[in-house]
Amino acid sequence: MTPAAGEHDEGTSHGASRRTRRFLRDNSLGLFFLIAFLFALAGQAVAGRAEFNEQLVADGLAPVGFGAYLTSSDFAVDVTENWQSEYLQFSLYILATVWLVQRGSPESKEPGRSGTESDREQRTGRHAREDSPRWASAGDWRGLVYSRSLGLVMGGIFLLSWLAQSVTGVAAYNEQQLRRLEAPIGYTEYLSSPDFWSRSLQNWQSELLAVASMAVLAVYLRQRGSPESKPVGAPHSATGTEG
Asked: Alpha helix (H) ranges present in the chain?
């Protein structure tokens, strides 16, 4: 006997529900931070517009609507200057941890194992397994590119976001110049201006301090159940061990 239409639909619905729950469970970390990012971005837009309009009113100008603020250079430069500092942090950390170590940190390789490691250790080329990514077994340019793809992509996003910050930054700076009845400046002049480097460096220093703190504090402190921490009972000297 074939199942009735209602039973078939109910089974299909249950299967879809299980797949949805499995997807949410298997991707919960990325989804959590993506949703948190969107809430933070929305909050920044609301607070940023309020601050921007306060400045406009103080200068004797009319406030702008929400849509106009979202497409303004002022909002764009505030967003991109934070993005580029975050991607700088991860790009440097990805590349630095290839060669540099921190004894006792779960974020570091063990002392003496610095470098790009052998093909056997990295499971590349003829040492690739059946479940390895297809490009990992390629011995040509594909294997070379894929073996450095994370650093290349993260570094590329940093450069693009830094470029976006510079373009939107000069536009926002010149808007302020015009409101003060002062002459705008060119793009190359802005790249050497205190405003551009102040925006960049104030974010860079905080990101670099956070990375250094994480690498060193994880030697001595623990967070039970986190892969960013060593097991609670692991010795301080244990390196590259995750709980």
From this structure: 5-26, 28-58, 66-70, 73-99, 119-122, 141-146, 149-179, 187-191, 194-220
Amino acid at site 212: A
> pLDDT tens across 154-177, in order?
999 999 999 999 999 999 999 888
Residue identified by tokens 């250094």 is 212
The set of residues, in sequence order, having a beta carbon less than 8 Å from that of 219 and lying 6+ positions away, is 102, 103, 104, 105, 236
Nearest partner of 170 among 158, 186, 192, judged by Cα: 186
What is the DSSP track for 38-83? HHHHHHHHHHHHHHHHHHHHHTT-----HHHHHTSHHHHHHHHHHH
- For the chain, the C-alpha Rg in angstroms (whole number) is 25
Q: Which two tokens stand for residue 25?
A: 């469970």
pLDDT tens-place string over residues 28-86: 999 999 999 999 999 999 999 999 999 889 888 899 999 999 999 999 999 998 899 99
Nearest to 115 by CA among 96, 130, 102: 96
Task: Name the residue ranges covered by the structural domains of the chain.
Answer: 7-71, 80-110+152-243
Write out the DSSP string of 120-134: HHHT-GGG--TTS-G
- Give the global pTM: 0.82
Q: How far apart are CA 105 and CA 233, in angstroms?
A: 14
What is the identity of the amino acid at 124? T
Q: How far apart are CA 53 and CA 165, in angstroms?
A: 21
Q: Retrieve residue 59's tokens.
A: 């200068």
